Write the structure tokens for this entry.
Amino acid sequence: MKWLLIALIVIPGAIADLLNAMGMKRHGEVYDFRPRAIIRLIASLARNPFVCVGVPAMAISFFALMALLSIAKLSFAVPATASSYVLETALAKYILREHIGWRRWLGASLVGCGVLLVAI
Amino acid sequence: MQVDTRITQSLNALQRGLAAAREWFLMAHEPGNSDETQLTLELPAEMLGSHRSTATLAPGVSEDRSRPLCLRTRTVIVLLVVSNVLGNFTLSRGLHEVGRLVSFSPLPYIHAFLNPLVGVGVLLLIVWLISQLSLLSRVDLSYALPATSVSYVLTALMAEFLLHERLSIERWIGIGLIGVGVSLVARTVPRTGPVLHTLDDLPCEAGQ
């Protein structure tokens, strides 16, 4: 059950991050953080198809995390997503066409290893 | 009493969160503390200065509110990390109070939201969602991901200092690796993907 929940955290989480990144790049950069501007931002994102799929995928990932948190310790639950760092960096390279040099690869791998170690 | 210590611990966590939020707010209004040049998505100067556009103000709206609250990319990352860590922490404590929660029916989840700690946690995660989306609107996904992994370090340090779980040597090594990885990624250009807008023709108002 724990590992099923982890799959439900990682896979929808990766899809959500990809779709949200695409949707937000399409939306344009967000600079204003006043309450009204945030409400306008939410209204505008509600019509953005990428974000409209990405956020529910994030919610699936989130509820799976909630369920996992209720049966496992925080120190097991949170770092369980460690593998997503390298996975999502690769997806960002091939799907989002980001330029990923050696620093980013090394950085993402180190972060993934570090998160794994923290999980032990 | 165990409940008392739990409550004081949660209050301590909230207090720290508020202090961090205040710091964040002060940082947002301070235009000139850029000691890091890696995060190059700084705002143009006129966005941070007092930008008066009284002509478009509706009557009754005070002039102070006409100033856009522009946050730097670094500030958004701090907000994201803090809300993520505190959100996960309060949710975890709240859910342990609620009890086992593995179900495919929505009712136990709705019941869980009635717990105040869970409520605060969910609010913090909404803040996290908004800051995550605005961060993704500005920088690459592969830049944002490691930057947000600082939350693991904070979570582990909170386990050490708030929950008094001793951190093993492996965990300290892990924290060090995360630190090195994050500082490597921080030395790259934040945005490399196909750019749809240039910085110049962006309005400060979002959502247009």
